[in-house]
Design brief:
It contains 21 helices and twelve strands. It is α/β, with parallel strands linked by helices and 469 residues long. It folds into two domains: 6-144, N-utilizing Substance Protein B Homolog, Chain A; 201-467, Vaccinia Virus protein VP39 (Rossmann fold), CATH 3.40.50.150. Strands 5, 6, 7, 8, 9, 10, 11 and 12 form an eight-stranded mixed beta sheet that branches. Strands 2-3-1-4 form a four-stranded antiparallel beta sheet, covered by helices on one side. The protein is globular.
C-alpha cells in the first residue's frame, strides 16, 4: 500500500491494528493467503502492543467469519450488489461493518477510520461512498439489520446460511453429516460454534515433557491425555522456551494421532509412516509415541515447503527422523507391505476447521470436494498397499463432509474386499480419551466424527482400517 494519499495528499492516519487487519483481509482475497499464518507475521512487523494485537486479531477473524452476513448488510445499505463494489473498498466496508455491528468500537471511530482507510486504497468517489454506506449501517441496530437480512432469505437453508455466515452448500453438507448420526437438530449449534473464536490448545509431547511441567500453564483437555488449554500468554514463546516439545495443536488432531498410536500395544521395531505429514503437528506427536514404544517412525510430505515444516516440527524429537518427499499415491509401489501403522491425514476441504480458518468457507466450492475425493481415494488405496498384513491405518480428514469421510472409506474398503477390515473406531477412541466422548450409536461401526459444538474440537473424522493377509 502506498504511503502517499490520493491526489498527492498525505494520507490520514489509520490506527495500526485496523491497518494490519485490512492488510491480512486483502491478502486473503488477493493471493489466497492464510490468515492464521499471515496475521502473526503482520502483527510482529507492525510491533503492535498486546491490546492492539488483540484488536487486530478480533477484527481480522471476526470480519472473515461473518463476511457472508456482512456482504448482505452492505448490499442492502448500498442498494447495490457487492459484486458492483470495488474489491478493496468492499474489504474496508466489511471491516467497518464488523466494528459497527459486532464490537464495542465507538461508531465515530469505526466510520472515520474506515473512511480514512478507503481514502488510501480507493478513489475519491469511493471514499464518499464508503462514508455513506457505513453511516447508513450505523443508523440501525444489529437486531434491525438481522431482521432485514433474514427477510431476504428464500428458503430455510438460505436463512441459516445468511444468519450464520456460511455458504448454502456448506450448510447442506453439514446437515447431511449430522443426519448420518441422527443429530440433524444440532445444525444450528454447529454453525454457531464455527463463528466462535477457538481456545488456544496445546500438546505436550509424551515422554519429552515431565508430567508436572504443564500443570501451571493451563487446564487439561477434556479428552486428549496429551493436551491442555493455555491459560494465557504467547503460545509461541512457550513453544520456543520448551524447544518445540510443547506445541499448539487442536485437541481433535491429538485424538486422531493417539487413536492410531494407542489402538493396541506397540511392539518394539514396528515401522510407522505419516504419509501426508505437513505441516507436522500429528507427525511430532506420533514420533514421540513411536520413540516411547521403540518403533521406527518416518514422515512423508510431497510439497518441499511443507516437508521443511515437518522437519522443523520433528526437531523437537530426539534422534534423526527421516522425512521423505514422495508422491503418496505411489507409496505402495515404492514400499509395498512395509509398515505396521500408517497415518493418512488426507488433503481435504478443511471444512472442519472453520473456527481457525474462517476464510476457507468462502474459498472452497462444491467442485473442490469432487476433485479431492479422487486424490483421497488414491492415497487411501496406496496406503493400504503399503501396510503389512495385520497393520493398522488411520484415515483422517479435517472435514465432516460425507464425500470426504465415510464415502471414501466405504468405496476403497469395498474395492479391497475381505483383505481390509474396518474397525469400530469409537471404542478405541473411548479408551484413549480422558473421559467418555459423546458418539451417537448411529455413527459407530466404522469411523468417528468429532464436532466443535459437541466436543470443542475441530470437526475431525477418524477411521481405523486393518490390512488382512
Amino acid at each position: 500500500m502506498s504511503g502517499q494519499g490520493r491526489q498527492g495528499q498525505a494520507p490520514e492516519f489509520v490506527q495500526p491494528a485496523r491497518r494490519v487487519a485490512y492488510e491480512v483481509i486483502a491478502a486473503v482475497r488477493e493471493s489466497d493467503a492464510y490468515a492464521n499464518l499471515l496475521l502473526p507475521t503482520r502483527i510482529a512487523r507492525a510491533a503492535l502492543n498486546t491490546a492492539d494485537a488483540a484488536l487486530a486479531t478480533e477484527l481480522t477473524y471476526g470480519t472473515l467469519r461473518m463476511q457472508g452476513y456482512y456482504d448482505r448488510v452492505i448490499s442492502l445499505a448500498a442498494a447495490r450488489p457487492t459484486s458492483a463494489i470495488g474489491p478493496a473498498v468492499l474489504d474496508v466496508l466489511r471491516l467497518g461493518t464488523h466494528q459497527l455491528l459486532a464490537t464495542r468500537v465507538a461508531t465515530h471511530a469505526a466510520v472515520n477510520e474506515s473512511v480514512a482507510l478507503a481514502r488510501q486504497v480507493g478513489s475519491r468517489s469511493a471514499t464518499g461512498f464508503c462514508n455513506g454506506v457505513l453511516r447508513t449501517i450505523a443508523r440501525s441496530s444489529p437486531e434491525e439489520w438481522r431482521e432485514r437480512v433474514l427477510a431476504e432469505a428464500g428458503n430455510p437453508d438460505e436463512l441459516l446460511a445468511a444468519e450464520h455466515s456460511h455458504p448454502v452448500w456448506v450448510v447442506r453438507a453439514f446437515r447431511q453429516s449430522l443426519r448420518a448420526e441422527g443429530r440433524e437438530d444440532e445444525l444450528v449449534d454447529l454453525l454457531a460454534a464455527d463463528n466462535l473464536p477457538p481456545r488456544v490448545n496445546m500438546v505436550a509431547l509424551p515422554g519429552l515433557i515431565e508430567p508436572g511441567e504443564t500443570g501451571s500453564l493451563g487446564v487439561p483437555d477434556a479428552f486428549a491425555p496429551t493436551g491442555f488449554v493455555l491459560a494465557g500468554g504467547d503460545p509461541y514463546d512457550l513453544m520456543a522456551a520448551h524447544r518445540g516439545r510443547l506445541r499448539v495443536q487442536d485437541e481433535g488432531s491429538q485424538l486422531a494421532a493417539l487413536t492410531l498410536s494407542r489402538a493396541r500395544p506397540v511392539r518394539a521395531g514396528e515401522r510407522w509412516l505419516d504419509l501426508c505429514a505437513g505441516p507436522g503437528g500429528k507427525a511430532a506427536l506420533l514420533a514421540a509415541e513411536a520413540l516411547a514404544g521403540r518403533a521406527e517412525f518416518v514422515a512423508n510430505e510431497l510439497v518441499p515447503a511443507r516437508a521443511q515444516l515437518v522437519r522443523n516440527a520433528l526437531a523437537a524429537v530426539p534422534g534423526e527422523v527421516p522425512v521423505w518427499e514422495l508422491d503418496g499415491t505411489r507409496i505402495s509401489q515404492v514400499h509395498p507391505d512395509t509398515f505396521d501403522r500408517i497415518m493418512l491425514d488426507a488433503p481435504c476441504t478443511g471444512l472442519g476447521a472453520l473456527r481457525r480458518r474462517p476464510e476457507a468457507r468462502w474459498r472452497k466450492q462444491p467442485t473442490d470436494v469432487a476433485a479431492l475425493a479422487g486424490l483421497q481415494a488414491a492415497l487411501l488405496d496406496a496406503a493400504l498397499g503399503a501396510l503389512k498384513p495385520g497393520g493398522l491405518l488411520a484415515y483422517v480428514t479435517c472435514s465432516p463432509h460425507i464425500a470426504e469421510t465415510r464415502g471414501i472409506v466405504a468405496t476403497v474398503a469395498k474395492s479391497w474386499g475381505e483383505r481390509v477390515h474396518q474397525l469400530d473406531t469409537a471404542p478405541v477412541l473411548q479408551r484413549v480419551s480422558r473421559s467418555p466422548i459423546d458418539v451417537p450409536p448411529a455413527a459407530t461401526g466404522s469411523g468417528v466424527q468429532l464436532w466443535p459444538h459437541r466436543h470443542g474440537t475441530d470437526a475431525m473424522f477418524i477411521a481405523l482400517l486393518e490390512r488382512r493377509a
